[in-house]
Amino acid sequence: MADRGAQATPFSTQLTDFDDALIKRGICSREQCLRAKGMSEDQVLDTLVAEEVELQTRAAEDTLRASLLDRELNPERVREEVASHATVKQLDELEEDDDFCDDAFLAKYRQQRISELQEKNRRKVHGEVLEIQRDQWTREINAASSLSWVFVHLYEEHVKDCVVLNRVLSEIATKHAEVKFVKIRAKTAVPDWPDNNLPAAYLYKDGAMRKQLVGSRDMATGPPPFTALSVERKLVELGVLAMEDVEEDASDEEQESSGRRSKYSREDGATWDAS
Fold it and tell me: Which of 9-23, 182-196, 214-228, 261-275 has the least mean pLDDT?
């Protein structure tokens, strides 16, 4: 493609009715029709890319115009859409917005959010990491998963990342008590489980194992070692936690995460390499 942009003879990209008929019937493609006009492979590629960019630009402009027109013609519907997805904190912030100065309007959605939070709190029946033995597996994991997600941590005390993860899970379990967190020594659960596959976790829902995580890098998003936020975000990816339940408090934790990671690495000797 060294001569791209150095086209000596201009070509028309306008196809004939006959070309259009061939394309419509699947006999040939637009690319083949352009090549038949004498275009090189590079010129055809440049033409098709330019046409695709133009189509996408027009579509984006059309969407923007439609959105602006909708906001102008249907301000009430737009307000409803924004407020219906806002958290309680965001609803408080909307009180400063001239478009949302109706106290009764915001009060309706605030009450909805409060009712949703109350319902969610009624489902928060756990709140700690439960240590179990092998003979408790069916009751504490399979059966319990019919009511909520169950996160099972296979660990050993001599594996440093397991120590860190257990500490982080205790924090997460307190914040997300609607999920059941369980831990069991790996050799108790599976006698020949190798240490190099630790930490490990099983996620159960509706009586069945839905996901298996093996090794430190499977347990969290972002750079190691573990923080509550990085593990929470992993659970959001897996559908165990809702994004809004995690991200609302994310900024405060992110400000503290560097110090906590250094603390984990120094005190616990976590095996992850952050470089």
Answer: 261-275
Contact in structure between 127 and 174 (CB atoms under 8 Å): yes
DSSP string, 186-197: HHHHSTT--GGG
The total of other beta-carbon atoms located within 10 Å of residue 253's CB is 16
Q: Quick check: 166 and 153 in contact, CB under 8 A? A: yes
228 DSSP 8-state letter = H
User: CB-based burial of residue 10 (10 Å sphere; 0-12 exposed, 13-18 middle, 19+ buried)?
Assistant: exposed
Residue found by looking up tokens 């309007």 in the block: 105
d(CA 188, CA 186): 5
Residue type, 151: F
DSSP classification of residue 99? G
Q: Please tell me the least confidently modeled range out of 29-33, 99-103, 192-196.
A: 99-103
The dihedral through the CA atoms of 13, 19, 21, 27 has a sign that is negative
Q: What is the C-alpha to C-alpha distance for residues 15 and 22, in angstroms, rounded to an integer?
A: 11
Question: pLDDT by residue (tens digit) across 220-266?
Answer: 987 667 889 999 999 999 999 988 878 755 555 554 554 444 344 44
d(CA 131, CA 186) in angstroms, rounded, equals: 12
